[in-house]
Amino acid sequence: MPFREAETGVPVEALADAEMEMSAEVVPGALVEVGSNPEWETRDLVVPRHYLALNLDPEPLELERRGAGGIVRETLMPKSFWVNPPGRPFSHRVARKNRFGLIALKPDLVTRLTGREEMETMLAYGVADPQLYHLTRALIGEVRAGFPGGLVFMQSVVTALAAHLVRNHGVEPPTRPSVQGGLTQQQTNRVIDFIEARLVDDITVEDIAAEAALSAGHFSRLFKAKMGETPYRYVMRRRVERARTLLDHGDRRVGEVARRIGFSGTSHLTRQFKHHFGITPSQFQQEARR
Description:
Blueprint: E1 3-5, E2 11-12, E3 19-27, E4 30-37, E5 40-41, E6 45-46, E7 50-55, E8 61-67, E9 70-76, E10 81-84, E11 92-94, E12 98-105, H1 107-114, E13 124-127, H2 130-144, H3 150-169, H4 185-197, H5 205-211, H6 216-227, H7 231-248, H8 254-261, H9 266-277, H10 281-289
Antiparallel strand pairs: 1-2, 1-6, 3-4, 4-12, 5-11, 7-10, 7-12, 8-9, 8-11, 10-13
Helix pairs in contact: 2-3, 7-8, 7-9, 8-9
C-alpha cells in the first residue's frame, strides 16, 4: 500500500509489521489487500488513492484518531469501513491486533470508470454499507480463488464498486446519467462486433465501453438497458455459446476448448456451461454423439 508522509511525500512502510494474506493489483489502479496487523500507530500519513479499510474481525475495532479538536475515538463494527479521501492526512492509534481488508482506487481510474471528474470521497468511520461490503468480498474472493472469472469479471466488479463509491460516498452525489434513448444502433453494432472479434481475449468492460466512446459505468447501465444483461454476462454467455459450437463440431477435449475460448480452465468452463445449459460440457458431448 503506497503510504506517504503528508508533509514530505516520502514513502512509508506503515504495514511493515502486518501479516499479509494477499495483495493484488486486480486491475491497473485498483489494489486489494487482506492481512492482520498488531497494535498500530501512524502520524500524518496519506494515501494517494480512494482508501477503503474494512474490519474483518468478528468484534468491534476501537481506534483513536487525531482530529482538529484533539483525540477522537472511533468504532468500526464488524463488516464496516473507514473511508478516506485521496491525499487526506490521518493519524491513528489501534491498541490491539486486528484483521483488515483494503481497497485502494486511483482517482484517475474512478474518473475513467464513472465519468466523474475530480470526485472526492467523504471521510467517514464505521461505515455500514452492505453493497460496498459484498463488492469488496467479491474482489477478495476472486483473488483467493486465483481469478477464475478473468479480467472482464474483475473489471465489472471494480466498475460497480467505483460507481457505488461515487454515488454513495462522494462529496457531491453525481446526477445519474439518463438512459433515455440508450445506445444507438451504430454504437451497439460496434460493441457487438468488437466483442465477437475479441471473445477469446481477456477484454475488460473499459475496453468495450471505449468502442461506444463512453465511460465504463455509464456504458454498463446503457448496455444492460439495451441488451437485458450486463456486459460481463453477455461476454460470458457468448463464450459459452461458442464453446458449445466447438464441442458440437469436432472431437475436441473440454480443456482444449476452454483454453481456446479464454476460460481460466476446464472447471471454469464447466461451471459456466452448466449454469447456461443445465448440463456439463462432457454430458453435452455424450448427448451430441448419440
